[in-house]
Amino acid sequence: MATIVLVHGIAQEQESADTLEAKWLPGLAGGVRNHGDLELADRLWRNGVPGEVSTRMAFYGNQFLVKGAQGTVPGQVDDAQLELMGQLAEQWLTTAAKHASYDRDRRTAQQLTAVPPNARAQGIKATMRPVLNGLTQLRWFAPLGIGLAEKFVWRALSQVARYFTDDAVRQYAQDQVLAHIGPDTRLVIGHSLGSVVAYEALHRCDHEVALLTMGSPLGLRTVVYDRLRPQPVSVPTAVTRWDNLVDRDDLVAAHLDLAPFFPPAHGATVVPVTAAALDNGAAPHDSTHYLVKAATGDIVAKALTR
Predict the structure, then answer these.
(1) 3-state secondary structure of 209
(2) Residue 4 scores a pLDDT above 90
(3) 215 near 253, Cβ under 8 Å?
(4) Which of 30, 166, 186, 272 could form an S-S bond across to 292 if both were Cys, CB 3.0 to 4.6 Å?
(5) What angle do CA 252, 253, 259 make, to 5 degrees?
(6) What is the mean predicted confidence (pLDDT) over 122-126?
């Protein structure tokens, strides 16, 4: 069992629990150090070595690898999954059209969200290609280059769709979270799709913990929110505090204050608290950029001393 449980997001299928811990732990300690708690930072990570605070990654990315292959096979989605992928891609474009801080991204997204009715009538396959092309034009994906950006977008969309349509994947992911939670667990941190996994897993948890979500799509109506389990949605009873962090350019998070969407559990008062928008620079969805913020360090310090 771990004091802090980490839950990764999309497109991590080529990683492992160990490699992701090695990437997340320095960032986690860095955020605490930036917050000013040097002693706790050293207890998390010091001189390239994990500290005494037990921190474990709940890894489920291997569920998106194809049997007998060492990578994903992009074409292996059914019609229901493709439909969900298309809805999510359009939601990302809508978010960029409304909130992107870069004028060119806003204009590009606005043009692409105005899909002619006759194109929609032809089905999702008719609209998917221009939507994918539009997403890869955004500065959000520019560091990847056009070819890699398209592959990344497809992988990201398909993994979200797989989670919500494949009960075996969903169960496995949540089980990895619960396997690390025990009486000594103080904080669960979920990034991206990992925030969805953490949220649903904590509805099955009896141990009280704090929850930190980063770049979370939990508030995306229809695509994510309406598919959450259990329904109707509420803050899990096990959660003693819920903090949410978002960058205004993070397409996945959609810039939503989660409090209006997640009422307290019966008899409780806990609701999600979203801090002022962060600036993660050119990589708004990057987990490390979220972790190293002083705001993150403050949340971690409070969870471990509460």
Answers:
(1) strand
(2) yes
(3) yes
(4) 30
(5) 155
(6) 59
Structural domains of the chain, ranges and CATH numbers in brackets: 4-64+167-305 (3.40.50), 79-163 (no CATH)
Please report, as a single letter, which amino acid is at residue 269: T
Please list, in sequence order, all residues whose beta carbon lies within 8 angstroms of the beta carbon of residue 249, skipping any fewer than 6 positions away.
99, 100, 101, 102, 140, 280, 284
**192 pLDDT above the threshold of 50:** yes
Check if the beta carbon of residue 151 is closer than 8 Å to that of residue 74: yes
Three-state DSSP class for residue 251: coil
Q: Peptide bond before 230: cis, by omega within 30 degrees of 0?
A: yes
Look up tokens 């769709």; give the residue: 161
In our burial notation (b when 16+ CB lie closer than 10 A, e otherwise), range 137-154 reads bbbbbeeeeeeebbbbbb
Q: How confident is the model at residue 193, as a pLDDT?
A: 97
